[in-house]
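Extended Data, record RsmD family RNA methyltransferase
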Amino acid sequence: MKTGINPSILTEEIQNYINANLTADLHSLLLKKSPFPDVSMHEIAQQIKGKKVAQKKFPFLLRDGIIFPPNLNLEQASSQSTAEFKAKNLKGKNFLDLTSGFGIDAYFLSQNFDEVTLVEQNTELLETVKHNWKILGRTANFLNQNLEDFLTKNTNKFDLIYLDPARRDAKKNKKFLLEDLSPNLLEIQEKLGEISDEIIIKLSPLIDISYLLSVVKNVSKIEIIAVKNEVKELLVFINRKNSHTDTEIKCVNLESTDPDFVFVFNDEKNAVAEYSDPHNFFYLPNNAVLKSGAFNTVAKKFKLLKLHANTHFYTSDEVVEDFPGRVLKVGVTAPKQILKGEKFNIISKNYPLSPDEIKKKYKISDGGKTYLIFTQSQKGRIILRSVE
């Protein structure tokens, strides 16, 4: 077996040993001598780590014969839930992934395409993906090549191009500006447009959307993807035929009951919010919506009132259904009504004390079903308590 990886790791005896040690402490395990002459304890620990990660991040890989790459590749790979979401409504003849990595996105994105091409410059990583796809019953054209070299020599056209640029430099420092990524998207965007009308780029959730739209051409849509209210990534959809500036922003919170929130980016500039002291209901948008910057659009769309210009909390007399975030029935409370030893879920925004400082000051702790919200309205600092 010639895979660029150690074939002995796949023997039944070693696989049984790996499965038997899935709950073992990896640090302690690494101090032991490997019981197998052809496989090091480091290789065994890597497979154990991979299976542990796969249990939560990509369970479709929990099957016999799958090989897992080093930790950094596991960390950088998309989760199964985000990859499955990205694959919705995508289809065509030719799919190209220019930064294959561990191939999670490619596996799902390419499912409705006839021909699949994966480009990856890391030889061992690509061979791992090639081996795994064989186990999974999937085929592709696997190219062990530098992305820039591929673009220079390629003469084919594709229905869809996908890429996830490296966001770390040689010293493993995180990078966010497009010109600092590898590849430099600003340098290759014209070339990408020559070989496909449809391009999807995965970017860090920390990137500024206004900056992004100012430097990338023909952006038709941006999807902000969160999982359980943690923003994981931004997906940029580039349509070469798109010449207008009405970029759609879609905010998604996977593995939650939140509905998607969709708006046109430029509409936020013209949206005006009204302000008010707290009414009966309190609204906190999920983090995908907050990342979008649609603070006034949210107020306008759901007919809500903002508490403060610098606090993206909203209020209303009657409950609004299908809000993309947390909705609580609340009442204003006084500090003396917060009793020592009580348990609360604490939210603090635009308030001088952090949740930890609040817990210390009032001698309260985390837990329970009641929320305490420390914030500001137009008239000053307030404390809200949720009502069952």
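Summary. The chain has three domains: 7-61, 76-256, 269-386.
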